[in-house]
Every structure is written in C-alpha cells, then in structure tokens.
Amino acid sequence: MERKKKSPHVTTLLFKKQISQHAKLKIYPSKITPYVLIDPTQEVCLIKGKSSPEDTVKFYNLIFHGLKNYILTGKNKLAVHISLAYFNSSTAKCLFDLMKVLRQLQSYGLTVTISWYHDEDDEDMLEAGEDYQSISKIPFNFVELQAITPSLLNNLHD
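Now predict its structure.
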C-alpha cells in the first residue's frame, strides 16, 4: 500500500526553512491550517482561514519564532490582521500565547496594532476577539465582514 505524502508546505517550513532576520514567512493554507504571512518589508502579520492543525503547537511555534525574530529587523511597528472563520480549542490556547508574544514585542518598543475580522453575524468570533483584546491589553480594531448578497453587489455597481 502506497503512503500518501504529506503536503510539503508546512512540513518543509517547520523543519527546513531558517527564518532570517529579513526573510518573510509565508505558509500556504490547507483545509485545516490558515494562510500565514509575516512580512517585515510591509510591517504586517496576517493569519487568515481555518485553524485546526493536527499539531497546533508545532504550527504556531513557527509563527511565534517568526514574530520573535521580527524585532531583529529594526522595524518599529507591526500591523497584525487575524481573520479566522473557525478555530478549535487548541488554537484558542495558541492565540492566547500569540497575544503574549505581541505584548512582549510591545514591551521592546514595537508599536503593535491588531485588526480582528469577523463575519457580521458571528457573535462568537467577535466575543473571542474581545476576550483576546482584554487578555493582551492591546487595543483591537474590530472589522465586520459583510456577507456578499445580491443587494450588496447591486450597490457596488451604482
């Protein structure tokens, strides 16, 4: 029986890619992992999609490592954008740890802004963001995503 190879996007990044102080980190999404981008040239960190990795700690440790190295780039600000449609309980713990890392970056003098995206009818995701804002003591910008409806499309053409 032939074994199916694992997708190289996460495995390769986790074990083979060294994050230099000027390199950006990009992880392509899968059905269970979000798209991740840490780009010092744009001073941005983006986490977008669904998050329920098999080994959540291993996945998020790469992000933590990239963010901890961000301070070495000499940049003085970082805009964090988090847009998760779904995350499981182990990701919730990692997001808590992410808030601690971002708070640590602030303590080193980095200006950190966080935008938390949620669907307009997803109160649970909004509440989760409010909880993380309270934990991190970093002000969040809450961005409500509107569902694409025929009336919204008609308004775009007017």
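The helical segments are 8-15, 56-70, 89-107, 123-136, 150-157.
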